[in-house]
Write a structure and sequence with these properties.
By secondary structure, this protein is mainly alpha-helical. It has 4 helices and 3 strands; from the N terminus they run E-H-E-E-H-H-H. It has one domain.
Length: 111
């Protein structure tokens, strides 16, 4: 497992945001195999890092790379964050953000 931040990660995340048609600030981190690319501003954010670790496990298990499967993986990761919120020390504000993201994912059908 490797976590990368800095210029390389920022450039990759900006590109990924453009490809997916989302604002760059919404693309906080991505996992590629066992590498997590995270924006420097979020490098100490436990919630984002936990979510990306979940995505690494999903990829290791062979998650399909279709839009539907990725959206399902995003939902599953957020549900896992909620289930483990106490064990992982996630704050009420972080869980509120997760719930908001779940609602958006369900409403739009995409991440």
């Amino acid at each position: 497992m490797e976590i990368r931040s800095g210029t390389e990660a920022e450039e990759y995340l900006d590109w990924a945001a453009e490809v997916q048609g989302v604002a760059p600030e919404r693309m906080q981190a991505v996992s590629i195999g066992d590498v997590i690319m995270i924006r420097q501003v979020h490098v100490t954010n436990v919630r984002i890092l936990r979510e990306e670790l979940i995505h690494v496990r999903q990829q290791q298990a062979g998650i399909e790379m279709s839009r539907e499967a990725i959206t399902a993986g995003e939902l599953m990761a957020r549900y896992e964050l909620i289930r483990n919120r106490h064990q992982w020390g996630l704050t009420h504000q972080e869980i509120r953000e997760v719930i908001h993201e779940i609602r958006l994912l369900r409403l739009t059908g995409r991440y």
